[in-house]
Amino acid sequence: SRPQKVCLCPFLPIHPLKVSTCLYIIQHPAEESRVLRTVPLLAACLPPDKCKILVGRRFSEDRYPELATVCRNPNTLILYPGAEATNLEEVAMMSSSPSVMIIIDGTWSQAKDIFYKNSLFRLPRQVQLKPNYSSQYVIRTQPTNTCLSTLECAAVALTIMEKNKSIQETILHPLQALCSFQLQHGAQIHHSKEHLLKNGLYDKPMPKNKRKLRRMELLVNNVKI
Fold first, then answer.
1. Residue 109 has what pLDDT?
2. Does pLDDT of 194 surpass 80?
3. Which GO BP terms, alphabetically (predicted)?
4. Which of 123, 102, 98, 100 is nearest to 111 (CA)?
5. To the nearest whole percent, how much of the chain has pLDDT over 90?
6. Residues 80 and 112 in one domain
C-alpha cells in the first residue's frame, strides 16, 4: 500500500515468524487513521493467528466473549507499566507454556483510558518491560527516551517470551526502514519530550492544566511517571 520506491516488503521476513505467544492488540480507533502507525508492520511479521487486532474504546464481556475468555486465562499477560506490574523477564523465567499477551495501541493517554475503563483488562497478570531500551521510532515524539512504539514493545516482549533474540531484530527491521525512508523524504528526527524539556528545546506553550504541567516537571527531574 506504499509507493514502490519506498516499499517495505523487502524488509519483512520472507515467512511469518514462528512463535508460540499469541498477541492481542487492543487498538484505539484514532490509530487507524495514522499514516505511520506500526501495528500493520507487526502484523506482517507474524502469522494471522498469532497477531489479532481489536479496534475500539470499550470492551464488554457481552460484546467480546472471546476476549473475555482470553482475559480469564491464567496464561494471559497484559503489557502495561505501573506499580502492580511485574517485570516480564521474571514471568518468562517461571513460565514454559504458550502465553497470550495483550498490548494496548494508542497514545499514552488513550492507552490509560482503555486500561482503566475496561475491567476485563485488569484480570490478566500485569507485566512491564525494563527501561533498558531506547525507541528507534525517531519520526514520532515520545514522552520519554524509553517509551516504545507498539511494534517495539511487541518485538521486545516476544524476544523475552520466546527466548529468541533474533525476533527483535527481525521485527524492528521494517520499522528502521520506514524511519529511514521518511527521513530521506523530509521528515525530521523527533526527540522525546523529556529530552526537549531537559535541554531547553521545548518550543510549545506550557500547558495550563496543572496535572499536565506537573507531569512535565517530573520528566525534567527524572521522576518515573
1. 87
2. no
3. tRNA processing
4. 102
5. 56
6. yes
| SS (HEC) of the chain | CCCHHHCCHHHCCCCCCCCCCEEEEEECHHHHHCCCCCHHHHHHHCCHHHEEEEECCCCCCCCCHHHHHHHHCCCEEEECCCCCCEEHHHHHHHCCCCCEEEEEECCHHHHHHHHHCCHHHHCCEEEECCCCCCCCCCCCCCCCCCCCCHHHHHHHHHHHHHCCCHHHHHHHHHHHHHHHHHHHCCCCCCCCHHHHHHCCCCCCCCCCCHHHHHHHHHHHCCCCC
Which range of residues forms the domain containing residue 99? 4-132+140-184
Confidence tier at 150 by pLDDT (50, 70, 90): very high
Residues 215, 108 share a domain: no
Query: How many domains does one find in the chain?
Result: 2
**pLDDT confidence of residue 225:** 41
Residue 140 has what pLDDT?
65
59 or 148, which is more confident: 59
Q: What is the pLDDT of residues 155-187, one digit of tens each?
A: 999 999 999 999 999 999 999 988 888 788 776
Read off the CATH number of the domain in which 180 is found: 3.40.1280
Examine the domain organization and report whether 150 and 53 are in the same domain.
Answer: yes
Residue 166 sits in the same domain as residue 206: no
161 with 108, same domain: the answer is: yes
